[in-house]
């Protein structure tokens, strides 16, 4: 479970501080797949980075699996898998296998556990043909598959994904979507941001809509459809932004 309590994050600026998150409250229950929606600059990436212990909230508290992201950052990192947009976190001079082995070791897996995990992930993502090639020459789709494998190498209970299908071809995007459905069946907790409404509708139980650092809606999709008397998520999203926080 992820619990976000009155979290504010400001960044220093020449004229005045920039508020990226403004008293955000949010709960993601265990086993949920939650879509995070918002225009550029809404605070989605800042929120995900704060949950991932990469940013420290200016005020408020974030609990991941009951652990405070500031005081218990090491415990939180063991629980989560993270993938941020184009930041694959891979080393170009290493092969895909060497990258995955490195991250498996980093997460404390034994050699045997790492090998088993790599074999399973290689089969799942169809990476056998390029597993022992250097990542530096990979296509975007190949890199993204390895990056997702890196995210899952330690079998995390909670997975955070920021625009994971941006720039991917149709085949790679479909592989990702199938993965989300598999992880959902396994009871994993997922929070991912996306601009693709069809993707969110197909994969998510609930959505969180953000605007100017605030949450303007949090809840199940079916409840949202009923309340708005529409299943056009793009229309609902734009309408929510136009009406503001109180809507």
Automatic annotation (TrEMBL):
The keyword ATP-binding applies. The keyword tRNA-binding does not apply. CDD domains: ABC_NatA_sodium_exporter (cd03266). Residues 2-237 form the ABC transporter domain. GO terms for molecular function: ATP binding; ATP hydrolysis activity. Keywords: ATP-binding, Nucleotide-binding, Transport. InterPro entries: AAA+_ATPase (IPR003593), ABC_transporter-like_ATP-bd (IPR003439), ABC_transporter-like_CS (IPR017871), ABC_transporter_ATP-binding (IPR050763), P-loop_NTPase (IPR027417). Pfam families: ABC_tran. Belongs to the ABC transporter superfamily. PANTHER family: ABC TRANSPORTER ATP-BINDING PROTEIN, ABC TRANSPORTER ATP-BINDING PROTEIN NATA. This is ABC transporter ATP-binding protein. It comes from Pontibacillus halophilus JSM 076056 = DSM 19796.
């Amino acid at each position: 479970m992820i619990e976000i309590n009155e979290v504010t994050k400001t960044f220093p600026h020449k004229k005045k501080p920039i508020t990226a998150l403004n008293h955000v409250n949010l709960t993601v229950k265990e086993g949920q797949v939650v879509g995070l929606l918002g225009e550029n600059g809404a605070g989605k990436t800042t929120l995900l980075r704060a949950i991932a212990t990469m940013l420290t909230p200016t005020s408020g508290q974030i609990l991941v699996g009951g652990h405070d992201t500031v005081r218990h950052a090491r415990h939180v990192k063991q629980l989560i898998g993270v993938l941020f947009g184009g930041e694959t976190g891979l080393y170009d001079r290493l092969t895909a296998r060497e990258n995955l082995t490195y991250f498996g070791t980093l997460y404390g897996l034994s050699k045997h556990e790492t090998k088993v995990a790599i074999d399973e992930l290689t089969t799942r993502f169809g990476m056998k043909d390029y597993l022992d090639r250097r990542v530096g020459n990979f296509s975007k789709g190949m890199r993204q598959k390895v990056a997702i494998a890196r995210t899952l190498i330690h079998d995390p209970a909670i997975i955070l994904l920021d625009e994971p299908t941006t720039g991917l071809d149709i085949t790679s995007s479909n592989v990702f979507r199938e993965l989300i459905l598999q992880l959902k069946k396994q009871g994993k907790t997922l929070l991912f941001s996306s601009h693709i409404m069809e993707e969110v509708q197909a994969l998510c139980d609930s959505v969180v809509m953000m605007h100017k650092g605030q949450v303007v809606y949090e809840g199940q999709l079916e409840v949202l459809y009923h309340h708005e008397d529409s299943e056009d998520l793009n229309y609902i999203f734009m309408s929510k932004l136009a009406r503001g926080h109180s809507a």
